[in-house]
Fold this protein.
Amino acid sequence: LTCERYPVRRLPFSVVSEEDLASFERIVPGRVVTDPEELEASNVDWLRTMRGCSKVLLKPRTTEEVSCILRYCHGRNLAVNPQGGNTGLVGGSVPVFDEVILSTALMNQVISFHSVSGTLVCQAGCVLEELSRYVEERGFVVPLDLGAKGSCHIGGNLATNAGGLRLLRYGSLRGTVLGLEAVLADGTVLNCLTSLRKDNTGYDLKQLFIGSEGTLGVITAVSILCPPKPGAVNVAFLESPFYVLVETSGSRAEHDAEKLGGFLDQALGSGLVTDGTLATDQRKVKMLWALRERITEALSRDGHVYKYDVSLPLDRLYDLVTDLRARLRPPAKHVVGYGHLGDGNLHLNVTAEAFSAPLLGDLEPYVYEWTAGQRGSVSAEHGVGFRKRGALGYSKPPEALQLMQQLKTLLDPKGILNPYKTLPVQA
Ligand code: FAD
Ligand code: MLT
Ligand code: ZN
């Protein structure tokens, strides 16, 4: 078996047998999906450019069930693909071959919420938008927001260390996550689900799982610190020649409006900004944000999308876009740059009517070399998954890659968790 566009050989894992299916049925009765139509949605990624051929999807409800599944798969040498909302953009969320898909879709319970501290403890399969609604009704916000909020799971967010639209305001998940619970490849439950603000008892093990993309363990529960819901939100949408969306959030509307007004006067006065609009009411705020949040979806309507997600020094952020516009010829259609300016994160997207190997050859390794030349990162926030693992060496030294491999071997000696993903391609 080889993958169509990226040649890769299936590792010698076992193949799921009738007996395995019967065992799964005993562990998660009535939640073993083998219907090909139902499996299709979990075998294909959001961008619809990666397709696995898994024959079974399991839907545990509890940590104990996840533990039993992994213990079983470990014993049988069956490969496992953890899956949340399947909104990942680097091909990490779908199987490459016939890996067992372990979905967190039914692990969607809030465990506790502390109404004074804002600490939310929940299962990994909670959908981000639903969590947002839950904490907002209680006067708090989730410190993370992204366009995929309607589908992505909080466990998937941690597994990818998603950045998103609020990182500048509230910081990365590496700071706001207080604890987590994960199940290791052999079924061991690692309960680090504390809600303490301070805990220096040795290594901060939760950080290993944040951003590990399902290769070191399955995250089953999360403890996250939610900040108070801001009393006043202002959104400014400014133009020319770039579009910039600025959101301020504070506690006193008049004070915030005065500060933003001062900034806008200055920006308009200096000629930096030529036009724009302001919003404070919820409906207009949402509408302006939708312009930004739906770029991904809009691009996917333009044909095949070559997606790059790089960190660059701010003063060079857009140069890669102009450079590629000058270099690329058809079949490239559009070269588009957007992202998270405040985070130094550029989303470089190139579209074409259909996948073209020569165009890929024009883009890679050029984009990666360009990024490395600026000491940037070849994956700012989307992760490595299946697509970017050949590019890791552009942003990490060999010693770091070797240590990553050693950690993987320590935690998952048989390599059953999300094989073919995140770690560098082995020679
Ligand atoms: P999946 O796609 O299901 O999985 C992603 C990875 O995590 C896979 O490797 C999977 O194996 C692993 N995984 C999932 N759940 C678990 C678990 N419980 N335990 C262990 N491993 C697990 N990303 C950003 O960073 N910022 C953005 O602004 C952003 N915006 C997006 C907008 C759109 C429209 C779309 C489609 C995607 C966007 N993304 C963004 C990418 C994606 O939404 C994030 O990576 C998200 O965090 C993935 O969550 P998920 O539940 O869908 O995970
Ligand atoms: C975004 O910022 O919109 C997301 O990361 C998705 C994308 O890069 O298209
Ligand atoms: Zn983004």
About this structure: The chain has four domains: 18-106, 110-225, 232-293, 299-383.
